[in-house]
Every structure is written in C-alpha cells, then in structure tokens.
Structure to design on (264 residues):
C-alpha cells in the first residue's frame, strides 16, 4: 500500500507531497527531515545515498536524480519489497521531471503550487510500472517474450527481438483456452498453467481478476549426460522462479492501481 509520495529539491526542501494515510500526512515534514538526514549521512559515510529503509510501521524507498538533484521518496507498507518501492519511486520521479522539464531545480523553488497538478498523474505512473516489470522479465536469459493481457483485451508486449513477437502472437489462442479454464475456477484454485510446446514453454499466470501474464521461454540444449526429463525439470524450475518473482510485483502494482481507481 502506497501511503505517501514526497518529492524534494536537491537542497532538501519538500516541493511536492501527496498522502493517503492520515498519520503519515500529519508527519510529512518529519519524514522530509528524516530523508534529508539519512541521505546526507549515507552519502558522507559510504559515498552514496540510502535507497531503502524499513521501520516497524512503514518502509521508505528513495530515488534521486543525479542531474537535477531532485529526490523522490515514497512511504509504503512493510509488506512491499524494496524492489517494488524502487520501481514505483523511479517511475514517479521520471514522470515528475518530465512534467516539469522547464523548471530549473538548481535554483530556489519559491512557488511550490506549480507542482500541485502532478497529483493525478501518480495513478498513471503506477500503471506504467507494469510495462517496466514485463520489460525486465523479458531480459532474463532464455525468456523470449512476455505478453500482458488486460481485462479489456488490450495488450502490452515485451520481447528481445521483433522476431519473437509473431511467435508469441501464435499462442494467443492457447491463452484464450487457458483464460476460459481460469474463468471457470476460483482464483485460488487455478491461477497458473504451463504449456510444453516442444522447443518452448508457455507460462500463463493470472495476475488480478482476468489480467494475465503469458511468458514464452526457450528450452536450453541438453548435455549428453543429461536425460530429457531432468533438463525439462531444471528449465521449468529456473523460469518458474524468475516469472513468479515478477508476477508478485505485477500483482502488487495492480492491487495498488485498483485501490486508487476503485477504492478496493
């Protein structure tokens, strides 16, 4: 759960903040001071700023832009991982700097109100993180392409090369079959399917509702001393672990996006 977004200038002044948690909102200035202190201490002691901090009540993810010195810090639930916090904070900071590219952040900011229009863009930032996650997944060795299918049928595709996209497109009919089976089952009963397609594996994961992740992976060449079944099991375990890590991130992104758009 995202509790607060705090954006600070290089001088450590809070120039934008948005809170969804009453407790955090009341102490945003204290958090701003804490972030400044931690970043300064970390930079002086180890040579680079802290990127993640976890307390008993919340977690803090911090990303800074080396060119402008602008810092984005998000306060989120302890259950969220540091990787999740980093992805969200990076996209928020990137969008913020893109939205206010005309501002010279090296100078003193006197009009903080000019940044108020950024608040509604945070939901879109969260949604775009899903694309980043499947792009990261597609860079895993052996994974050829990823297809994220939304509930309305729209798709996001990421692949290592354009030649992989037609191959993934050919599996859309298999995805439709898998989706139909998943629709007939409870979420906790059937949320994953594996299709062995000869030289490839197709992993189908249900993310949230009927949002589905389809991952196309190759099978590695077997050694002479290795049986076909052993190699298959090794491949499956390797890809399954990698995909599940990204699937969990996607679930958190869609849960967060759903909370901000529907309140559920």
């Amino acid at each position: 759960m995202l509790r607060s977004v705090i954006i600070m200038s290089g001088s450590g002044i809070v120039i934008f903040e948005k809170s969804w948690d009453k407790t955090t909102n009341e102490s945003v200035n204290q958090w701003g001071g804490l972030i400044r202190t931690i970043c300064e201490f970390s930079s002086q002691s180890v040579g680079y700023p802290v990127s993640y901090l976890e307390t008993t009540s919340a977690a803090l993810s911090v990303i800074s832009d080396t060119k402008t010195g602008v810092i984005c810090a998000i306060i989120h639930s302890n259950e969220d991982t540091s990787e999740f916090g980093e992805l969200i904070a990076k996209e928020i900071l990137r969008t913020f700097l893109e939205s206010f590219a005309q501002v010279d952040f090296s100078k003193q900011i006197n009009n903080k109100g000019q940044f108020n229009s950024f608040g509604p863009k945070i939901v879109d930032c969260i949604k775009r993180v899903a694309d980043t996650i499947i792009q990261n997944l597609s860079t895993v060795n052996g994974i050829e392409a990823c297809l994220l299918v939304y509930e309305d049928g729209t798709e996001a595709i990421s692949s290592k090369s354009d030649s992989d996209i037609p191959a993934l497109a050919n599996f859309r009919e298999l995805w439709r079959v898998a989706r139909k089976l998943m629709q007939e089952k409870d979420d906790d009963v059937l949320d994953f399917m594996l299709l062995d397609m000869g030289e490839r594996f197709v992993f189908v994961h249900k993310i949230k509702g009927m949002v589905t992740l389809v991952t196309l992976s190759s099978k590695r060449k077997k050694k002479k001393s290795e049986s076909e079944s052993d190699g298959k099991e090794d491949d499956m375990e390797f890809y399954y672990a990698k995909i599940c890590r990204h699937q969990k991130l996607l679930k958190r992104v869609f849960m967060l996006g759903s909370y901000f758009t529907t309140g559920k």
